[in-house]
């Protein structure tokens, strides 16, 4: 039994941020029932030629482990059935623009009447309240609004768009808030409405830069530099497009690195003798380190530096992660069977629990409406005739 076994979530989320929240909870054992419709499929479910395949890879990433039912939420009977589903759930999760669920007749006040202790989780770009709550948004805008984009990139270039990392950060924050709300319900018996604003998640990650700004200190884009450490950054290797990440944190490490690159005299150079001097003259370090690394095989260079106590590693591509024996040994990379029998690699939950209740993915991406016999029949107790009638009437569609 996984940690959240017994928890049920009615999942009305779409795209990436909200679905990643429920995906994380599903890996810890929650039964997540994704509500969809053929009238307007989740944009990520639609096949699109990305990542060298025609299948919806972005949808697979956030939908494994879930169950799927079809519901037309613009049909009165579809809304009624959605309420019945919420009535047997612990959590109702949604990620529409603020106010959409209320207009559908599924706002928090209504769902609370359906199930008094329901926890409703709403993920949106700007939150459910405030003068900009109606604003639409997607991952790059979250980072732009929240200040992360402005800080990302090189000093002589534009801000960098924050993509999947932004959606997933929002989803992880939403998952944490959901668990907090459930713990509160266990303590008080009361449900609540959890309001997650993606742009606020981005701002929460700005951290010390926001503190600096409040003190009147302007911090700009630093590329791969660190505020204190030097050398610190990515250096070329003899392997095509394989970059070596190096971070030196002390004078002792610098002396070791200077010896490894065949430039021991640099350890005593006044420009580099102390951490403060190295940081001030960090651009002058790029050439000698880069000249050495460019003649080295990436993996071998990283192993040598690590053996000498210097933090270093290749900047890995996804293909490296999939093939990594360490990740495989920990169950972080799993082989998942899809409904059509296709085997694909997937990233498991990053947490580990002692015992046999470890989080993880146990089934592939559900087919649209593939779990309606269980959800509508076994769970909600509808007869086959009643389900057939709702399908005929396009309430289930």
Automatic annotation (TrEMBL):
Pfam families named in the record: CoA_transf_3
Domain of life per record: Bacteria
Biological classification of the source: Bacteria, Pseudomonadati, Pseudomonadota, Alphaproteobacteria, Rhodobacterales
Protein name: Putative acyl-CoA transferase/carnitine dehydratase
Keywords, alphabetical: Plasmid, Transferase
UniProt keyword annotation of Cytoplasm present: no
One Gene Ontology term of the molecular function aspect: CoA-transferase activity
Keyword Transferase: yes
Source organism per UniProt: Salipiger abyssi
InterPro entries: CoA-transferase_III_domain, CoA-Trfase_fam_III, CoA-Trfase_III_dom3_sf, CoA-Trfase_III_dom_1_sf
